[in-house]
Design a protein that fits this description.
This protein is mainly beta. The chain is built from one helix and 15 strands. The chain has one helix spanning about 125-130; strands spanning about 1-5, 20, 25-30, 35, 40, 45-50, 65-70, 80-85, 90, 105, 110-115, 135-140, 150-155, 160-165, 170-175. A hairpin with a 7-residue loop joins strand 7 and strand 8 (about 80-85).
Length: about 180
């Protein structure tokens, strides 16, 4: 078993900022603008406020806020911004993005028990102790990880896995 932190859509209106969002980024450090890829604005994938977690999974100990952007449709590229303090952040206005869907506010994170995915354990074990799916920080990745990397985050719905080795970050998009 490994602890994991799940983020799910907010049921009620939350007022704290900077918040956690799927499909939106609302803050950046002073002087940082919106990232672009080959002259086009990147698409915001998620912003996670980790500052008040009761459990901090390995690989996220030095991160208080994480923002992930991906290249516009049909292009391969990504940009990750991590911040060790919230005090450097200010409001970031999003550019007009063609075909953009509204950001989904994420509710308070939930600490859960997570177990290895189906291919790594006996079927009977998996049925009793499933691998958690969704937007998950820590725990076990739902697909085979690269052994030399520390699994940090996964977004099951689109097949994104974020890992780390030291200070270097790696994105694996299996969607």
């Amino acid at each position: 078993m490994r602890p994991a932190v799940l983020f799910e859509p907010a049921v009620e209106e939350l007022a704290d900022e900077p918040g956690s969002y799927f499909g939106g980024v609302t803050v950046a450090a002073q002087g940082e603008g919106w990232p672009d890829w080959e002259g086009q604005p990147m698409v915001p994938l998620l912003q996670l406020n980790l500052s008040e977690l009761v459990y901090r999974p390995p690989g996220s100990e030095d991160v208080r806020l994480l923002s992930l952007f991906v290249a516009p449709e049909g292009k391969q590229g990504w940009s990750l911004r991590t911040y060790s303090t919230l005090s450097v952040l200010q409001r970031l206005e999003a550019p007009e993005l063609a075909g953009a869907t509204p950001a989904v506010r994420l509710g308070p994170p939930v600490l859960v028990e997570d177990y290895p995915p189906r291919g790594r354990v006996e079927v009977e074990f998996f049925e009793r102790f499933p691998n958690q799916e969704g937007l998950k920080l820590g725990g076990w990745p739902s697909s085979d990880p690269v052994d030399s990397l520390q699994h940090v985050l996964q977004v099951n719905s689109i097949g994104v896995y974020l890992s780390r080795r030291g200070k270097e970050w790696f994105l694996d998009w299996r969607g």
